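Minimal example, chain plus pyridoxal-5'-phosphate.
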Amino acid sequence: MNWNEKIRKATTHISQNEVLIFERSSAGKKAYQLPPLDVPEVDPESLLGEHMREDLGHMPEVSEIEIIRHFTRLSTWNYAVDHGMYPLGSCTMKYNARVNEYVARLMGLAEAHPYQPERVSQGALLIQKLLREQLLEITGMDAITLQPAAGAHGELTGILLIRAYLESQGNPRKKILIPDSAHGTNPATAATAGYTVENLKSNSAGMVDIASLEAQVNEDVAALMLTNPNTLGVFEQEIHKIADVLHAKGSLLYMDGANMNALVGKARPGDFGVDVMHLNLHKTFSTPHGGGGPGSGPVACKKILEPFLPIPVLVTKPDGTLGFDYNQPQSIGRVRMFYGNFGMHVRALAYIMANGPDGLRQTTEDAVLNANYIRKGLEGSYDLPYKTATMHEVVFSDRLQTPKGIKTGDVAKRLIDYGFHPYTVSFPLIVAGAMMIEPTESESKASLDMFIEAMKDIAEEAEQHPEIILEAPHNTRVSRLDETAAARKPILRWKPQSEVAEKEAVHHG
Ligand SMILES: Cc1ncc(COP(=O)(O)O)c(C=O)c1O
């Protein structure tokens, strides 16, 4: 079927047959109309010279309504947290409150330019100052930078602070310890910063094994990078002891704080021995992610690391106004142009202030309650490899389904048919066939019940009709894809039908 037929054929869904914008094109159509020129026309070639390009290749030519409908329809293809539950473990896909968007769109903030002089940017600087203060209060740390653009970027910044600190002490070290339950970005970060990564085994409760830690920490170890709660949704109950073991050998404790949705208002990393940590504003503090970004990964640290923070540093000047200080001789330098993703700072502060201390604490409690409600609801239907108390997310495995040939990825595909975004598949690696579920505080009891019911129905189907699951999804626009081919041989460039036909003719000829 060629694209013309594809468009013309009516179906029961309003946007079933959406084609590429290139395929909608017909010569001469325009989505704009300009008024006649009221200034002398300039020959574009005299302006552009040899850079002028007459042939623009295959640019789509469409009317305004065609382009509006095209993108509006495409926007309905995506699953979003505004559509329904998005239990993608480790991603904290919580609702992004509309108040955040309202504030971020206020003209003075949305249109502020980073080259604006400081004296006309006092409001923007005050937002950064307030956010810094709130995050320091929440984490119990001493100093902070808002510059990093994502969680992994925050990790790199934090590890560079540790490296600079140890070097300044004349004590450079070679290794970073990372538990096997860590997020994958942790070892990648350590290696990027030039360290050798040494794996630390978890115990049967899914926590750091203190005896292994004591055996592995020595004068070569710069730091331990610890995700807390870790990717099993387990809080490291001996975190104080872990910090003591490290500090006794002159090593530092880095905490991946991307899972702070389980701790805000309840426990402060600064109080339990952490030296440096990052936060994911796009997880815990409700700024958009998953296609909506950009992210923000502030790094908070203890006093000893403060001199090494990226420049510029936000300061209150002697005249009481806010400004930036570039004169920090021990700084690791910039990690990002300008001052970080400011729009995200605005949203995160709006979220914090709209909730207030009690609201934030309630959020944490609800996130943990929801994860535990799912744990209870699905126990028995799915295998629970670690029985330790669950915090913000719960990790099941596909062990009970594998005898029928069904794996975690198959259950996830079937979940799409029930109207849910899949949970995280096959992660953390420490659990074979992992099903990592993080509901967040955003979900009501009614939606949690629906999710539990769907997962139980799927467990039942696995027993009675495994083929339904193995061929899922059935109710989607696109059925099951060959994911290996999609990853290894992606087709990233559109070619006109005529070229494809030509190529096929050569191939078959
Ligand atoms: C525990 C943990 N650490 C680090 C990251 C990395 O954050 P980012 O994707 O913003 O780089 C994530 C991302 O979800 C995470 O869950």
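The mean pLDDT is 93. The two ends are 21 Å apart (CA to CA).
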